[in-house]
Design goal:
Blueprint (H helix, E strand, L loop, with lengths): L6 H9 L2 E6 L7 H8 L3 E3 L7 E8 L12 H11 L4 E3 L7 H7 L12 H14 L3 E2 L1 H10 L4 H12 L4 E2 L1 H7 L7 H4 L2 H9 L1 H4 L4 H8 L5 H9 L10 H26 L1
Parallel strand pairs: 1-3, 3-4, 5-6
Antiparallel strand pairs: 2-3
Helix pairs in contact: 2-3, 3-4, 5-6, 6-8, 10-13
């Protein structure tokens, strides 16, 4: 499982002379094992048993604890409070109920997805080091087509390099039709809700696109819309908009009834 280790966190540990103790899935560690790990501030270095080194525990996928792992988050919080070593907890879904309670015992750091220019620049450097010459606009197209997914960009470059040492925009454009990700798959429910309720953003999308946003998460999207639709107008509310808001409220209530009937059957 070492291939999935978040190397950025490992780099942080090494930069301050800590050795990382890594758990890929938090669910796989029992409370007793966890307490034994966090109870020792100094451990032996794997590369040199005679060398003592400070330890840091990395808990990845803490939002992936299964429903059957009762008390897992509570046990982790208890370990954090008693720990003699730093514990880094990593999650993908910050809004998970498991993470919300855990966040109260942690320093909450949020990382933004790298922007297209940043990814394209770094991927160009990697491509040159691997002997692949890529035009800048071709690289921008690759990054944009996969929704800034670094792993998929690397996979595409690796496959391209096996049969060619150069990537041109004109050649790439003809081959990209079936490679890019579906735009709706790349969206999360919160971003989809923002696009629907932000006036300038929503104008860019057709009715079909807006309906597609619902299927990003058809359980959560109605709840997000119901909670935030009244604030969509901001300071521009008038009599006409109030009437439209009333119709929207009625439609949301009807949609909830239909959803319950469908699920019942």
């Amino acid at each position: 499982r070492r291939g999935n280790v978040p190397y950025s966190m490992m780099s942080v540990c090494l930069s301050v002379s800590y050795i990382e103790l890594y758990s890929d899935w938090a669910i796989y560690i029992s409370q007793n094992v966890l307490m034994s790990l966090v109870g020792n501030q100094i451990i032996c270095s794997p590369s040199n048993p005679n060398k003592k080194q400070k330890a840091c525990l990395i808990m990845d996928e803490v939002d992936g604890m299964s429903a059957g792992d009762r008390g897992g988050t509570t046990a982790l919080i208890a370990c954090i409070k008693k720990s003699k070593i730093p514990i880094i907890c990593i999650c993908n879904d910050r809004q998970s109920t498991k993470v919300r309670s855990l966040a109260n015992s942690c320093l909450d750091l949020k990382f933004q997805k790298p922007q297209k220019p940043q990814i394209a620049k770094r991927m160009m450097e990697i491509a040159r080091s691997e002997g692949l010459q890529i035009e800048e606009n071709a690289m921008n197209m690759v990054v944009e087509s996969v929704g800034n997914d670094i792993r998929q960009v690397l996979n595409m470059m690796q496959m391209w390099r096996k049969r060619s040492s150069s990537m041109k925009y004109s050649e790439l454009k003809d081959k990209m039709a079936g490679v890019g990700k579906d735009a709706e798959v790349m969206l999360g429910p919160f971003e989809a809700c923002t696009r629907l309720l932000t006036r300038d953003a929503s104008k860019k999308y057709s009715i079909q696109d807006r309906v597609g946003f619902y299927f990003v998460d058809y359980d959560l999207m109605p709840l997000l819309i119901q909670e935030n639709y009244l604030t969509a107008l901001g300071q521009d509310a008038n009599e006409d908009s109030i009437e439209r808001m009333a119709k929207a409220a009625e439609s949301i209530a009807e949609a909830d009834i239909y959803s319950q009937l469908i699920r019942r059957k």
